[in-house]
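Hi F.,

I've been meaning to write this up properly since the lab meeting, where we talked about keeping a consistent format for the predictions we share between groups. The idea is simple: the sequence comes first, exactly as it goes in, then the structure tokens exactly as they come out, then a line or two of notes. No screenshots and no reformatting. I'm using this chain as the first example so we have something concrete to point to.
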Amino acid sequence: MKTYKIACIPGDGIGKEVVPAGQTVLEALATADSTFKFDFENFGWGGDWYRAHGEMMPTNGLDALRSKDAILFGSAGDPAIPDHITLWGLRLKICQGFDQYANVRPTRILPGIDAPLKRCKPEDLNWVIVRENSEGEYSGVGGRVHQGHPIEAACDVTMMTRVGVERVIRFAFKLAQSRPRKQLTVVTKSNAQRHAMVMWDEIALQVSKDFPDVKWDKEIVDAATARMVNRPATLDTIVATNLHADILSDLAAALAGSLGIAPTGNIDPERRYPSMFEPIHGSAFDIMGKGLANPVGTFWSCVMLLEHLGELGAARKLMSAIERVTADTSLHTGDLGGKATTAQVTAAVCARIAG
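Output, unedited:
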């Protein structure tokens, strides 16, 4: 029997509710399949840790994660702590520390969900967004001087490297190649950002020559938002910079019905370090502790975690259970217009796994 070592980092807000729900579902899968099991280790890093220790995670925290097979993450964000501290002190510290340079965000309309695009059929919205996850607009290059004075100045520099751009675009082409439509849209802003984004375009063209079977096109980011709304069926796999894909993927989740159902994987494709899987919904302090959080985004992230581990049968089984639960509108949480609780949705998914 295989044993997978999983680090669980609930983080802040509703992460403390949905990550334990994810563990429950993974344990249900292991019970139903005697070929593998999970060894979970929980890490109480986040806002509470910051209040006690002055940092979001220990300085040597990456060493505690390095031997794990995967990481299940909840959220980073606390209304009492500045957002740049919570993000850079926890999530980005892990993503960049483990060079998880490909952020993968699948989006589709699940059964039973009333998505806002009324003319859009479920088969028309079936995307995967690949977000460059290690540099770009979130490289951390910049500074601030003369704070509080009239001459105060601040800058954030978009830093792109040839190796960083090429590896994520190549990853996106390979992913598009593996999907039925073999189609990729490269999102850019090279009309206005005439240095880094022009290099991005040039590298995309160079890499495309290694994938003659992939049909690809280029779209300016602002036009891409309109295309997602007006012509969703023309999109399939999408690759964009760190900031552009961050924004586009939230739009994609909203168009599919709710940020509460959307998953993501922070992937190290070379498997040098553990990859990290998380829902994209954030800490949602307004509903924290009320048992109202939608755990579907976490469950779908667990599907991606299982796929990454090579447990494809278990991944399919979990995705099927998720779809059967979302198809039942009585099991929709508040973000989907229902009244179901986190515990009810979790129990229903576990029941489908067992049955």
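Notes:
Residues 15-32 form the longest helix (18 residues).
The CA atoms of residues 1 and 275 lie 22 Å apart.

If this format works for you, I'll send the rest the same way.

G.
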